[in-house]
Amino acid sequence: MPELSVEAVERRRNPVEYPRPVWPAVSNPRRSLYTMGDDAEGARQIRWEFDHLVLADAVLFWFSFETTQPIVRYELGRWAASDKPLAVGADPACERRFDVVQQLALARPGLTVHAELESTCAATAEFRLDAWLEGSLEAE
């Protein structure tokens, strides 16, 4: 565990006196050039996504209406079974929205499945700030 500075400890004790902006790092697996059918490239992409999900303090899942996203549903199941903070949204026109809502109601009761990308993103800011105030995020 990193050594905490006096200021970092005081910020956690008195968050109103020491406001700190929380700037998340965002990892997006989408790439402009991706060759479907290239096994080496596919393995590299899967490894990149796996590693970044493991490293993340929290994960946002967005299910669009354009595709069924079977691998993303698998990844959601994996992280829903963990204690990692999640923000989840599914477009109202998403073909499998019902399934996402029902599965998360069982795995993570109380977790909101948002209908808009904007509210899904806003949820990540809330739990990231909550985690920092609780002291579960490392000091900088």
From TrEMBL:
Source domain of life: Bacteria
Family annotation (Pfam families): Nuc_deoxyri_tr2 (PF15891)
Gene3D superfamilies reported for this sequence: 3.40.50.450
Name of the featured protein: Nucleoside 2-deoxyribosyltransferase domain-containing protein
Annotated source species: Paractinoplanes globisporus
